[in-house]
Amino acid sequence: MEFSQVVAKRHSVRDFTDRPVSREDLVDIVRTAQRAPSWVNSQPWRVYAATGSTLETIKERHAADVAAGRKGSAELPVKARSLWSQRTQANMAALGEQIGAELGEGAQEFQASQGRLFNAQAVLYVTIPVDSTLWSFHDLGAFTAMLALAAADKGLGSINAYQLVMYPDEVRQTMGIGADETLAVGIALGYAADSALAGFSPSRVEVDQILTVKE
């Protein structure tokens, strides 16, 4: 697939089928993502892939915690949306409007899908060392973007979501993640379901709103 097609195809998929993701595809996806730019070639990332019964255990614990109303405690700091910049708040508000307009009554599924972790058939948990520099967070973003693009190139959907790391103790215990690593990002993978929720793709702002060119 041409690179431009891969980029255009990628969006956050919130509803996956029950079709498994192969171990071979997971290995290939991570291998491809290792080409991401890295400050001083430090490559701070590590990846833990949950599938099969391991992922089912995480899903069950997650659903129970959501049902019990347990508050999330992600390891990266979370800030109330009202404290974000005016520009980013406007983008988030536009997303809410688009969800209502395109999904209608199905908008309830947008939230419900989070509690079941989107029926993902694999989840990649990405860590970086505790007390990493901001440059390592740059690397983290580049690497996780490459993971999503590599998945799209294989015909897989993906979504980076807070829900996947909101209860880090569940993931740490199940995946054996050490105390010297920060559980930073979770990426759900699978084959997109034939549903409006799976096909929903948020709009992006026009390029002239973010790009300044001076000659």
TrEMBL record:
Key words of the record: Ligase, Oxidoreductase
Ligase found in the keyword field: yes
Keyword Oxidoreductase part of the UniProt annotation: yes
Location of the Nitroreductase domain: 7-191
SUPFAM superfamilies attached to this UniProt entry: FMN-dependent nitroreductase-like (SSF55469)
GO molecular function: ligase activity; oxidoreductase activity
InterPro entries: Nitroreductase, Nitroreductase-like
Short name of any one Pfam family annotated for the protein: Nitroreductase
PANTHER family given in the database record: NAD(P)H NITROREDUCTASE YDGI-RELATED (PTHR43673), NADH DEHYDROGENASE_NAD(P)H NITROREDUCTASE XCC3605-RELATED (PTHR43673:SF10)
Protein name: F420-0--gamma-glutamyl ligase
Species of origin: Actinomyces viscosus
